[in-house]
Amino acid sequence: MIVNSSKAVTLSEVREILKQRESEGELGYEQKQTLDYAEKFSKSSKKDADSKVEEIMKNEKVLLETAVKIVDISPKKIETLKAILVKDKLELDEEEINSILKIIS
Length: 105
Description:
This protein is mainly alpha-helical. The protein folds into two domains: 11-41, no CATH class; 46-104. It is 65% helix and 0% strand. It has helices at residues 11-24, 29-41, 46-57, 64-73, 78-85, 94-104. Helix 1 packs across helix 2 and helix 3 packs across helix 4. It is elongated and about 50 Å long.
């Protein structure tokens, strides 16, 4: 298999892609395990997750990969959100952090 490109996707999108592939034929072991994980831990529909990622991305400081991770984890507490943001060394003010928490709640 040749990889032409790659991009960050939410667990909801992973779930949809693998369900579609499952309906087209049998999944391999890793794909089955990934589908099981995505079904257990994805918290919203693909449409809802994509819209949340877009909203978060309106803040130009936040990278796509970080926005996807925020939506996948859906932190409830400021401390958890800050722990995700620290990976990219992002320093958001209190208003920006509360805005993100509002989007994902």
